[in-house]
Amino acid sequence: MSHDPSEAPSWLQPGYLDNGACGARRVSTSRSRGLSCPGLQRRSRTRSRAATESTGSRWEPRAPKMRAVGAETPARELFQDAAFPASDSSLFFNLSTPLAQFREDITWRRPQEICATPQLFPDNPWEGQVKQGLLGDCWFLCACAALQKSQHLLDQVFPPGQPSWSDQKYQGFFTCRIWQFGHWEKVTIDDRLPCLAGRLCFSRCQREDVFWLPLLEKAYAKVHGSYEHLWAGQVADALVDLTGSLAERWSLKDIVGASGQQDRPSGGEQRTCRQLLRLKDQCLISCSVLSPRAGARELGEFHAFIISDLRELWSRTGQGILLLRIHNPWGRRCWQGLWREGGEGWNQVDPSKESELLAQLQEGEFWVEEEEFLREFDEVTIGYPVTKAGHLQSLYTEKVLCHTRALPGAWVIGQSAGGCRNNSCFPCNPKFWLRLLEPSEVCAAVLQRPRRCLLGQTRSLLGASPAPENLPSKDYQAVGLHIWKVEKRKVSLPRVLSAPPVAGTACHAYDREVHLRCELSPGYYLVVPSTFLKDVPGQFLLRVFSTGKISLSAVRTATKGASPGTALPAGEWETVQLRGCWRAGQTAGGSRNFASYPCNPCLPFSVPEGAGPRYIRITLHQHCRLSDSQLHPIGFHIFQPTGQGTL
Fold it and tell me: Where is the region Disordered (predicted)?
């Protein structure tokens, strides 16, 4: 996107970085599927790094006192992350973004080389608020604001108790935790951060001597491969990575406005701005502009904002007015609407309310009325609240979804990549049994693994053209999810799948994760994730959250052409995995030759009743890190309990 130089943050204006050099021009960039950042000023390539840094003596009034690089050498050797070094390989992927113009000027400094007294978190929460720099990762920074709403979420991502710069045990590294494909992954980084003219050039906090945000940004960049990989993305994806929960994207065309009218397909969830009023204190709410309007070009395009607050007021005539307080990660008040400071909108309310609400505005914030909001913004992203126990809370009923199950799956060409319901091979898709033991509110989600991870691609050499698979819009397939109610004892796939599902996504979407919400009665259900196109490979994680007790298992179809010793009867197979262990003195009873045999683990299972035979195949797998020659001889026996509960 492009903007006038006067709209850029003060430290990005040509007068600061270029010292008013002639020939500076705007760079316009956009991504069809991601949110990035404002336009950047291209600088003259004839200027040396020394000349560039010499212009860095102009500081904002609140900027921290600087310390010259090399003025003080640490008394001990500090950690240097060889896996994510302080070099171009960590900054760039293929030099395809405007960030490449600063390649020769970026240096790496530790926080104690940037300011005199660095700190991890501030005493005043506002001083730790997010502020965007050169990198187009507004989508990630908006998600980071969710951590500031909940201390237990922040502690989960940034484990407390880590030694920082004033501690004797400080060694120059920090550890963050990022949720990736069903697991919390520890990410350790050194604290060398990219700088321009001695100041942080990417994300930073309102107080520039607070460093939790740039350190977390570096950890997230390490997970993705480079800082440049963070250029453009979806707020919903970052929210999931930082909380492990779900996130919903609402098109503002589907929102019920003050008039009560709604332009949306029938049968969907009714969504209103009043819902946002109820949710504002429980979860992060972000809004996005995907294309500029004629009357509000100052909002930019492909840019994400944070909804800091919502307030309902009454006008002098007794009409209700809903105001939204918007925080721009750029750190400036770009809004010129009716409710700007001194705007005509404030004439509708009491002057005391005007003074109260304007006094709440911090740097980069502005008020917008509901009608303006629905007209000028395109999308809202809402993260599901997460309790201290780690359970999701429904956006619609506020019920706690305290029962969670997750299973991985894959679409394999020629086997289980059946495509959408328009294809005759749709029944070949992966299928899962979902059993509900009580009436429940259920959220089911399909999370794709990025295709570049599947292909095992490595980062391209600097300057090389990107492969199509590495473009953000090419990482994911269009996927959908459908659920059918079934009778477990009698399943005819053609008949079941030809009937309308009880729940399903509205369409197949090119999103990393799609999900649906529904109210289900007790019983068995067949869950089928699918891609829109057939014979498209991919891996996914199926997650189910429920207010009631549930069980989830994969349905396996017998493989044709297996060897005679392993051939299985044709039909649908339910697979259940049970885990156990032998503990010395407790459950390591030995074989049936020993009196201690009954101490061994007992794993109960049941066989459904009904006409015809039931085929069961049981495999006991020994998990051991020893070599094959040191594995223990193992075996198992099957007993049918008597009516008295004994074997």
Answer: 22-62
